[in-house]
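Researcher: Quick test of sequence recovery. Tokens follow.
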């Protein structure tokens, strides 16, 4: 998995084997977390048409839905890849993205 782009303190666009993923920074009260999901074909098409603006909007919709909060009714919660091996690969990709920005 590699990070293609990122908006500091908001989201990272990741790619692996031709699939796109969005890793969104969520913050609810005293709890901060990253929420990872695979981008659907429809979302990928909208991203292709609208660029980063679409990812900003999608990330905001994810954040607003509170997918990591117990008892939420987030439409994104079922798509969570947070407790999967993809989470570790996403973390490594984001770490590499930041490391590359330091050089």
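Model:
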């Amino acid at each position: 998995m590699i990070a293609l782009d990122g908006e500091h303190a908001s989201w990272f666009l990741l790619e692996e084997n031709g699939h796109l993923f969005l890793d969104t920074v969520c913050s609810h009260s005293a709890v901060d977390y990253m929420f990872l999901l695979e981008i659907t074909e429809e979302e990928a098409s909208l991203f292709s048409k609208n660029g980063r603006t679409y990812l900003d909007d999608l990330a905001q919709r994810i954040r607003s839905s509170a997918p990591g909060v117990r008892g939420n009714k987030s439409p994104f919660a079922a798509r969570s890849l947070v407790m999967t091996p993809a989470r570790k690969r996403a973390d490594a990709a984001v770490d590499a993205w930041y490391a590359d920005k330091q050089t």
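The chain is about 40% helix and 30% strand.
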